[in-house]
Amino acid sequence: MTARISAALAAMTVLAGPALAQETITYELWSRQDTSGPLRPGNVVKAADRLNAELEAEGSDLRVAVEIKETPAPGFDEDALQLARVYGIGEGPDMFIQAHEWICTFQQDGFLLQLDDYIAQYPEHFGTIFPSLWDSTRCQGGIYAIPQDAEARMFFYNKQLLRQAGYDEEFIQSMPERTMAGELTMDDVIDIAKTVIDNTDAQYGVLHRPSIGPDYLMVFQTYGNDFVDPESGDLLLDQAALEAAFGWFERAVQAGVIPANNTSMEWDAIRAEFYANNNAAFWMYGIWDLGSRAFPTYGLPEDEEAFFADWGWIAAPAAEQGGKPSTLTHPVVYAISADVEHPDLAVRLLGHASAADLNTDHAVTTTHIGIRQEQLDDPRYQEAWPLARATELLEIAKYLPNNPQFGDLNRIIYTGIQGVESGRLSAVEAAEFVIDEATGTLENVIVR
Amino acid sequence: MTALAEEALIARGLARKAARRRRANFIIFLGPAIVLMVIFFIVPVLIDIAVSFTDLGRALRITEVSTANYERIFAGDTRLTQVVALTAIYVFGTLALFNVGFGLLLALVTAPLNPVSSGFFRGVWLLPRMSPSVLYILLWLWVVDPSPTGLLNQILLTVGVVDAPLDLKTSAPVMLIIISNGFIGASLGMIIFTSAIKGIPVHLFHAARVDGAGSLSIARHITLPALRWPISFITIYQALSLLVSFEYILLLTEGGPFYDTTVYALYIYRRAFEGGQYGYGAALALFLIVIGIVLALLGWRFFDMKKLLQSPRIEVH
């Protein structure tokens, strides 16, 4: 946890005398190796040059450097546990990149720098960031992180398979609108997927991620699980709503729509079944998968019209006709350690990393949604049609709760899904399992 | 000074020297073992006991010292019964079917063969133990891959035994972890049993043949009685090693689906390192130590190991 002074520069200082005294502060940035966002740390490195130029112009003798510490965790949840241990033994980095719902876990233990005053102090860096995004960085009323990107999650669907299964063009093309209007329901998704399996060679109806993460929580949200009590901020579990959500997974597995071994399938195998092999009707994931995998790896058409001819996506449909559809946006954020050296410089560094042009580089190369108003006017951003189209979903998007224990609860929920899909638990038992595990291992859990 | 007194002095000097040498020998020969045992066994157990009374969590901070972890083990943890039952099935199943049963079968079948073929067969069965665990499990993952391209499915589908590809990781996960661990465990038993069989004086076999005994009765009346000590040893040793090892299961099934293949040792790992509940994991681990010691003592008593250790069972002239 130390910003180090370069020995070489110190030696130079001695030789050159006080007139050229220059101090370089090296910030260690903890970042998970992630092909869906290499510019998250990359932009911070570029930002160091901009900040140094600014410091030089100001006549300051301080300079910054960034040292990236890449970690091999397969997901943000695993990475957060590792990072917590590193902080626990006093070896935490100066700043890190994480999924927003983990921030309060670190804040709770006093590891994070509160940013409210800095955000107000540097409006040139933070003034135009979408106000709603800051909600994903708050813990107990204070801001503890800087939004890095946003996205939307959805059910992608394969229009070719739906056509083969006998659905007419009008039905297929109107699915997104009918979902947004609350006409299409979660059980309709099961029915459509079942029809595809029965009438085509496709083997799978709906596939979802084989690891812990946010997308499947859309299903829980649609069935009325908010997971947090708005008054106290404590975790809230509603047995009936949990049963309803697990019931959807149960019906889908019983109909042969979700494979019983979905949670033990390989990521690449799942993507190949959906994008390459025409073997799955739906794939529950997120918009960035187009830019990071579907286009480059599986050769899906990058042209908007060509893409929507054979592929499409819908939000998570409503639980019942007339209900509300849902989607999740899951911002990734930058956070700074409480004991960082020169916190103002650390904040300015991340401010430069959040510059519109740099953030647009990240957004358009990995199809993530930008963080500020002026990015929307950037021609590059406008050309990246998946972004504009995904932004349509944001009006119904919600965040995961910023509760320090939510990551733990999500692990339990995922295990419950695995129990239901593999036939070890019924929906009712899965709801009981989640309540039982959560009340046994977490604190202040309200059960309704 | 009289000669007697001088002698007494010399004798005392010698005795002191001998005592010094004994102490030096003790330090030289037993010291390293004792130091290692203290550092790697006693100290970790003491740390484990201390941690088990705390609420050490994800951020490695202790805010409370209490017996809450033990209360949870005895009253609150609903998964524990299933985990303990599965561990019993896994340890007993792997031990009986493979580590002792299959190991014995391999030894009995290969021992009478000529040295080249028996060496070859034993070498083949040693391969799983020699391969790195990650590589060994990677091969298993390819064999039981649930898609039609998995090795096992390719064979079964071609032969026509099944119509649809099998997914053993979902449909028979316990069988899978027993077999994958058993293939490794069988080789140790095989080697020990083979060497014990080779140690049986050949004239006993000749005499039995002269008396008209067949292969089966030779195995039953001569070979097996001579294997009592190795069988006892392998049973206790492998039971303890199966109880605490979980790396192959973690790599193959990750303890799933759900908790189906989460044996006790893996359960501790999942609680402590996946859930970040180090205090509770330490309390669970303490019981594993206790179970291990009890099992070892029971085995000692049950197989009468003390007697077996005293004198060689087989006289070789």
Question: Would you write up a description of this structure?
Answer:
The complex is a heterodimer of chains A (448) and B (317). With 448 residues, chain A is α/β, with parallel strands linked by helices. Helix content of chain A is 46%, strand content 16%. Chain A has a 5-stranded mixed beta sheet with strand order 2-1-3-13-6, sandwiched between helices. Chain A has a 4-stranded mixed beta sheet with strand order 8-10-7-11. In chain A, helix 2 (39-58) runs antiparallel to helix 17, helix 12 runs parallel beside helix 20 (406-421) and helix 12 (239-254) crosses helix 21 (427-441). The longest helix of chain A has 20 residues, at 39-58. Chain A is globular and about 75 Å long. Mean pLDDT of chain A is 91; it is low at 8-19. Chain B is mostly helical and 317 residues long. Chain B has a domain at 79-276: MetI-like fold (Orthogonal Bundle). Chain B contains 15 helices and no strands. Chain B has helices at residues 3-52, 68-76, 80-110, 115-130, 133-143, 151-159, 168-171, 173-198, 202-210, 215-226, 228-244, 247-252, 264-274, 278-302, 305-310. In chain B, helix 1 (3-52) packs across helix 14 (278-302) and helix 3 (80-110) runs parallel beside helix 8. The longest helix of chain B has 50 residues, at 3-52. Chain B is flat and about 100 Å long. The mean pLDDT of chain B is 89. Classes of the chains: A alpha/beta (448), B mainly alpha (317). The A-B interface holds A 81, 84-85, 87-89, 105, 109, 111, 260-261, 263-265, 269, 408, 411, 415, 418-419, 421-422, 424-425, 436, 440-441 and B 58-61, 72, 76-78, 146-147, 167, 169-170, 253-254, 256-260, 273-277, 280.
